[in-house]
Amino acid sequence: MACFARCVRLVIGVAGLLLLVSAASPSVAQQVNPTASAVKEQQLLQELNRVQGRVSIPDQRSGVLEQPAGREWREFRNVTLRWIGGIAILGMLAALVIFYLSRGMVRLQSGRSGRTIVRFSAFERFVHWMTATCFIILAISGLNVTFGRPLLLPLIGHEAFSEWSQWAKYVHNYLSFPFTIGVVLIFLMWIAGNIPNKADVDWIKRGGGIVGHDHPPAYRFNAGQKAIYWIVVIGGGLVAATGYALMFPFYLAGIEGMQLAQIVHSIVAMLFTAVMLAHIYIGTIGMEGAFEAMGSGTVDVNWAREHHSLWLEEENARDARPQPSVTAAE
Question: CATH code at 286?
Fold first, then answer.
């Protein structure tokens, strides 16, 4: 019994000593960093449901199989983007049909004169049609990424859809280069004529000849064409820059940056496509004589007088200038 009592007293003494040490240095546990990559609570919450493994290649980011922002991006791509594209494109098509049925084609009120004037050179028309052709193919192949699976796959089957999607991807990637060159050339060719001026304000107030039957004066490019120009330059620049960030992953940004690039790329492309539908409408069935400007490069003089009278006056004044005489050297 005496031995047992001594053992009990020893245990109690050791326990008391440990309590005294803990009380004397309460910050010992706080001073110890359990891990070199300790993070805050909010950071831990962001890492929930993150699926990450180990890889043998130098780029350790490839080991991330799933991260929280990826689920938000997937929701945007599969749901939100389809709504944006559907409303923008189908809404524009519906508006154009209603406008055509109510307004019809904008006709030449004075008829055709039989005389033409050069509006665009062969090089300008080449650049326009190269860029336009690339854009149409890029738009179709890009829309396949968003709407192909729910709309096209049930119609043609898995095998045909897989083959089409593979070729659409190749075409989308390679045609991006001539499209980008075209956008740059358009910017350089027509920047001088697309600076806003006072005539544009009056053109907008008077409906631009589209609403009603008024024909406000305009220079070579009216306010509507200037708007299309800047949409092509800015919108085309954005889709090109973000598209190349996606074509060459991890060179310019990480996975989060690429997700942001895809969001910007897809939204701008959808809105870009909707605006180009209106541009195609005006240039074809929306206005008599408009297609000839980019078709043959010439327009009827009466068309120029009704839609671009200030430009016609400049061209007539330039043609009326006396040419310098050349004398042969004696």
Answer: 1.20.950.20
Total structural domains in the chain? 1
Q: What is the pLDDT of residue 256?
A: 83
Query: The domain containing residue 252 runs over which residues?
Result: 118-133+176-318
3-state secondary structure of 219: coil
Q: Which residues of the chain have pLDDT under 50?
A: 8, 11, 14, 17-21, 23-34, 36, 45, 326-330
SS3 of residue 298 by DSSP: strand
The single residue listed with the structure tokens 């070729």 is 167
Q: Is the dihedral of CA 175, 178, 180, 182 positive or negative?
A: negative
**Cut 0.85: pTM above it:** no
The count of other CB atoms within 10 Å of the CB of residue 10 is 10
Question: Which tokens is 109 given?
Answer: 């009120």
Asked if 290 contacts 283 with a C-beta cutoff of 8 angstroms, the reply is yes
